[in-house]
Design a protein that fits this description.
Low-confidence stretches: none
Mean pLDDT: 91
Shape: globular
Strand content: 15-25%
Number of strands: 3
CATH class: Alpha Beta
CATH architecture: Alpha-Beta Complex
Structural class: alpha+beta
Order of helices and strands: HEEEHHHHH
Number of helices: 6
Bound molecules: FE2/S2 (inorganic) cluster
Radius of gyration: 14 Å
Number of domains: 1
Strand order of the largest sheet: 1-2-3
Distance between the termini: 9 Å
Helix content: 40-55%
């Protein structure tokens, strides 16, 4: 299985790693099939994600996609962050092998879950803004 240089770079040197104290929103998602877990923290100021960090207990592709996802939403508005798809994360990483596509879905879900938590803390029903968080897609972990 071949990984792009960008995937290897974000796996070896992940950006924005770690827990965040006093986060405004925290989202945790997991893929029940492979057992990988991704936790995303956001700091929000005036609808802009001013800071973001993550902790991923998972495969290399999950780490690389979380790292890239944080880079893609940092400094952007919540509205822009909610438009981030797993496809956009994969494209930014110059692609992922087909069996690893589900790892990028976790990144999209984690951002949405963190934004949902942000709205919940403000007493706003996140479903109205965030919509449904996509379900985990089939994990091909065993076939790798
Ligand atoms: Fe990468 Fe499932 S998240 S193997």
């Amino acid at each position: 299985m071949a990984y792009s240089e960008k995937v290897m770079d974000h796996f070896a040197n992940p950006r924005n790693v770690g827990e965040m104290e006093n986060a405004d929103g925290v989202g945790e998602v997991g893929n029940p099939k492979c057992g990988d877990i991704m936790k995303m923290y956001i700091k929000v100021d005036d609808d802009v994600i001013t800071d973001v960090s993550f902790k991923t207990f998972g495969c290399g592709a999950a780490i690389a996609t979380s790292s890239m996802a944080t880079e893609l939403v940092k400094g952007h508005t919540i509205e822009e962050a909610l438009q981030l798809t797993n496809k956009a994360v994969m494209e930014a990483l110059d692609g992922l092998p087909p069996v690893k596509v589900h790892c990028s879905v976790l990144a999209e879900q984690a951002i949405k879950a963190a934004v949902s938590d942000y709205y919940e803390r403000k007493g706003i029903d996140p479903k109205d803004v965030v919509g449904e968080i996509p379900e985990p897609i089939e994990c091909h972990f065993e076939e790798n």
